[in-house]
Amino acid sequence: MDVALKVWRFDPASGERVLADYEVDAPEWACLLDVLDLIKDKVDGTLAYRKSCRMMICGSCGMRMDGAAVLACKERMKPIVESGHVPVISAMGNLPVLKDLVVDMDPF
């Protein structure tokens, strides 16, 4: 299935934020984290995000989708693709952004 995303990118060197468009072919079982992995592996190796357990427990892949807090490993993409919606992905809003979807976890 073709999955389209918009991802807020943040460059710490310049302080610039840019909304980047991505589209990848993903399996029907893919979650948001799988799609981010495909983007990083096949489209843009500079995309930064966190992941760890992939079991919906640790919270390291926490981010925002259309402003709502989600775990990227839990959020299935098939229903979103079928609805025709292109989600906007951004870093968690309660911590300072270090790069792209990675936030500073020290205050946590």
What attributes characterize this protein structure?
108 residues; alpha+beta; five-stranded mixed sheet; 17% helix
Proportion of strand residues: 25-35%
Identify low-pLDDT runs.
Answer: none
Task: Give the number of helices.
Answer: 2
Which quaternary structure do these chains form? single chain
Question: Strands across the major sheet, in which order?
Answer: 2-1-5-3-4
Report, as a whole number of angstroms, the end-to-end distance: 37 Å
Classify the helix fraction into a percent range. 10-25%
Return Rg in Å.
Answer: 13 Å
H/E topology pattern: EEHEEHEEE
* Biggest beta sheet attributes: 5 strands, mixed
Q: Globular, elongated, flat, extended or rod-shaped: what is the shape?
A: globular
Backbone structural class = alpha+beta
On the 0 to 100 scale, the average pLDDT is 95
Q: Tell me how many strands there are.
A: 7
Description of the structure:
There is one protein chain. This protein has 2 helices and 7 strands. The chain is α+β, with helices and mostly antiparallel strands and 108 residues long. The strands form 2 sheets. Strands 2-1-5-3-4 form a 5-stranded mixed beta sheet. The longest helix is centred in the middle third of the chain and has 12 residues. The protein is globular. The protein starts with a strand and ends in a 5-residue tail after the last strand.
